[in-house]
């Protein structure tokens, strides 16, 4: 995944246009009926809850698509609380009303992802036992760039954006091809210096994967005790230094602390994106002179 600001402008504008089209913003019957003529106005977008701000780039894109002038009062990755103004838009009140829900939806969801990530990062901390917090591909359809950027704003790592970005041999691959052969084929197609990651469930599978040439392990659906046994087996065979170890499956911000001492490098949490609770925002509108 490229840095958040490199992933942004074109993809966020496309997302904004799709979201406005989905809401049929150009066919707002209520605004057409109530405001037949232009009215100059200003709208301030204000946080109603506490959390980590994200989604500003997409929200700004949505405002600009409908012709509004925008000034930012907030910055992605910063903390907000009730009353924090994060964005101000000016222009025809009809355009503000048409884009209002799209702007708020983008901010609410992205900030929810960033807030969930920040919470997980805090739970994963702890000196030498700290784990890197990774996102997954368990994203809502059409919102991947928004959510991956939000993970970065929350202090996490986006991991691979899509299937083209990294090699990860999963259990469904291994249901069709023997582990050693799958790793051999993956290494033959890997780019120079690229990691070959293999999903494993037991210490025995982990040892087989590393001996076959895997440079990263995804230990899936393991309790802290079983994850610790995988790392211990690697250390006993003097193989731990060859691989990075990622934990995945059933890990949340609530139970993440229990995994800090197993000796892994990172933990990936699908809940950061697929189950994030929105941070509420609202828009206050006022007419401008002239």
Describe this structure in words.
This protein is an alpha/beta fold and 290 residues long. It has two domains: 9-121 and 277-287, Alpha-Beta Complex (Aldehyde Oxidoreductase, domain 3); 126-274, Aldolase class I (TIM Barrel, Alpha-Beta Barrel), CATH 3.20.20. The chain has helices at residues 9-22, 29-34, 56-65, 93-124, 144-153, 171-174, 179-189, 203-212, 224-236, 271-274, and strands at residues 40-47, 51-52, 69-72, 79-80, 85-92, 132-134, 167-169, 196-200, 216-220, 244-248, 266-268, 281-287. The strands form three sheets. The protein has a six-stranded parallel sheet. Strands 3-5-1-12 form a four-stranded antiparallel sheet, covered by helices on one side. Strands 2-4 form a two-stranded antiparallel sheet. Helix 9 links the parallel strand 9 and strand 10. Helix 3 runs antiparallel to helix 4, helix 4 crosses helix 5 and helix 8 (203-212) packs across helix 9 (224-236). The termini are far apart. The relative contact order is 0.16. Residues 1-6 have low confidence and may be disordered.
Strand content: 15-25%
Query: What name goes with the CATH superfamily of the largest domain?
Result: Aldolase class I
Number of domains: 2
Query: How are the strands ordered across the major sheet?
Result: 6-11-10-9-8-7
Mean pLDDT: 94
Summed up, what is this model?
The protein has helices spanning 9-22, 29-34, 56-65, 93-124, 144-153, 171-174, 179-189, 203-212, 224-236, 271-274; strands at 40-47, 51-52, 69-72, 79-80, 85-92, 132-134, 167-169, 196-200, 216-220, 244-248, 266-268, 281-287. With 290 residues, the protein is an alpha/beta fold. The strands form 3 sheets. The chain has a 6-stranded parallel beta sheet with strand order 6-11-10-9-8-7.
């Amino acid at each position: 995944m490229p840095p958040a600001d490199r992933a942004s402008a074109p993809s966020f504008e496309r997302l904004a246009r799709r979201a406005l089209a989905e809401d049929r913003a150009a066919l707002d019957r209520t605004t057409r009926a109530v405001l037949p003529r232009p009215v100059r106005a200003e709208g301030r977008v204000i946080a109603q809850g506490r959390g980590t701000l994200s989604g500003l780039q997409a929200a700004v894109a949505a405002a600009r698509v409908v012709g509004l002038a925008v000034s930012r009062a907030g910055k992605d990755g910063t903390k907000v609380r009730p009353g924090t103004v994060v964005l101000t838009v000016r222009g025809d009140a009809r355009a503000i009303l048409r884009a209002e829900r799209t702007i708020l939806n983008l901010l609410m969801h992205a900030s929810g992802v960033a807030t969930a990530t920040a919470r997980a990062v805090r739970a994963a901390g702890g000196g030498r036992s700290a784990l890197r917090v990774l996102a997954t591909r368990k994203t809502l359809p059409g919102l991947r760039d928004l959510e991956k950027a939000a993970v970065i704003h929350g202090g996490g790592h986006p991991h691979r954006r899509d299937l083209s970005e990294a090699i990860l041999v999963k259990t469904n691959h291994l249901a069709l091809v023997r582990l050693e052969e799958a790793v051999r084929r993956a290494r033959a197609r890997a780019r120079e210096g690229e990691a070959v990651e293999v999903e494993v469930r037991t210490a025995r599978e982990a040892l087989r994967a590393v001996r076959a040439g895997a440079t990263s392990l995804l230990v899936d659906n393991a309790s802290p005790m079983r994850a610790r046994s995988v790392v211990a087996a690697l250390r006993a065979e003097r193989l731990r230094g060859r691989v990075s170890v990622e934990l995945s499956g059933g890990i949340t911000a609530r139970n993440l602390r229990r995994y800090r001492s197993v000796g892994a490098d990172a933990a990936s949490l699908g809940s950061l994106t697929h189950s994030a609770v929105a941070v509420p925002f609202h828009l206050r509108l006022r007419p401008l002179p002239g």
